Amino acid sequence: MLYVAYGLFIVTLVLVSYVLGAFDLLPYDPQQINMELMMAPPASEGHVFGTDFMGRDIQSRLIMGIQAYFLPGLLAISISLTGGIILGVLSGYWGGRIETVITYLNNLVDSFPRLVLILLVIAAFKPDIYYIMVVMGITGVPTVATAIANKIRFLIQKSFIEAAIALGLRTQTIILKHILWYNCRALLIIQATLGMGEAILLETSLSYLGFGVQEPVPSWGNMVQSGANYFLQGNFWPSTAPALAILLTILGFNLLGDGLNNILEDRRGK
Amino acid sequence: MSAIPLKAMILTLLKELGLAFLLLMGVSFVVFIILYAAPGDQFSVLLEGQLPTAEARAGIREALGVATSWYGQYFSWLMSVLGGNFGTSIRTGLPVAGELLNVSLNTLYLTLGSMAVTLFVAVPIALYTSVRGHSVVIGWPLTMLGYVVSALPVFWLAYIAIYISIHSFDFFPLASMSRSAEGNNWLYTFIPVLVLGLGSGTISEVIRNLREEMSRVMNEDYVRTARAKGASVWKHAFKEGLLIPVTEIIASKIPFILGGAVIVEQVFNWPGMGRMAWQAAQDRDFPVIMGIALVAATFVRMGSLLQRMVCTAVNPQSRD
Description:
By secondary structure, chain A is mainly alpha-helical. Chain A is built from 11 helices and no strands. The longest helix of chain A has 37 residues. Chain B is 76% helix and 0% strand.
């Protein structure tokens, strides 16, 4: 599948860039100002992606910008998945009153626009990306929980669960091994890739709005923002490069998730 | 067409109002707990730059008549909110409620307009592709376009729109609504609405969802019967294939559109709730942002209530 190939390419690129950034293996110092080489266009000598309005190397800044969302995004995903698995299993396997409570919680989380809730938390605590991602992780729980619960309700109608119960397997073995590991891991991988896409969108939006990572430390959102005035004067590149990075990366994660989903559904159909 | 099922609708209305009430109570509780757990309290903002002695704090608390226990604070706050009093802004000292009413109307205008834009683009595409079948030539680029649009950062789209309007139409769209009408006034509001409508990431989902539903309905027996006897297929497919999915997806996307509005309002200087929320987050202006969260949640619940009403009106037997 073309989707999955593109998605895997982007995910690999992000991973490699993250490691490069973490070990400071960059072509230039991302905060190095060079007043003699401002607004260099892409593919100019020594600067593959050109330089911004202060002569800083855009390629280095793009690579460094991944630091702003990568680990926080992983945190958000792991919270969503952990919470979603617990609530989803409770609701799907046992149902009953727990299900009502979970439906209420789902509706409650869905009642807040996520960005407004995050601005509330920023006002209450501090504009720290890890706080923000905890909130994002919690608000992602209902989606995962609903997906898992639906899947379990579908699986329970099949005879293998009944057979496992009849054979006297322990409930935790059935849930952990036969339901979650054999039948839900694809779903969880898909939710994780989609969650990463959302985390990137959220982090870049917030750093665009001026919360989270602050200049001169680069993040894709504040790079778009700081290049905005030059954009309106016709110097598109300093804003457009990070915007394209956001676009292509989120696209990669979404295509990977949906592509995997399609492949798995096809296989099941056959 | 049958008459509108009044009894079923009243029942749904009551049930949904009850649910909305329960959820809004939950929302208010969550909002309160977040702020209660926050380090320091809202009064420390008032005391900034002064000597924060315990006496000064107690004095302020007493002067403002604040209860000391958390449930006491919650109930007194909840009661005043229910009475329409959202407190006063810490930054401006003005009552929150009045200002909130103004800005929420502006935001409502922006979100409703952008929904109209979304539907105006998405519905024809969805109908065309579902009725014509999944032709590869049109289907693939459309799907791809959907993915691209939903990954597009809305702030960058906004800059493109601003650039085009400056250089092609020779006007600057950032003074929206604050300046009175000068010829191009409708453009001031139209460009933010257009950007949010195209860039909030809902278009692709509306298209996908509608296309699936419409294709499903088109293969139903009753549509085939209608087609066979020469009756209008459109009339039979409209409710199930278009009306219900459209209201469903729009209602479920209200939180996303409101979130996108925060950014679009910031870029275009649009005096709405999103910009107010941004300002309040900068200033740690608790009463304002609490009010905004409550109003936004009310918008979301009202949207979902309307959606259930439409569903019941179309099909009184439907329940979830």
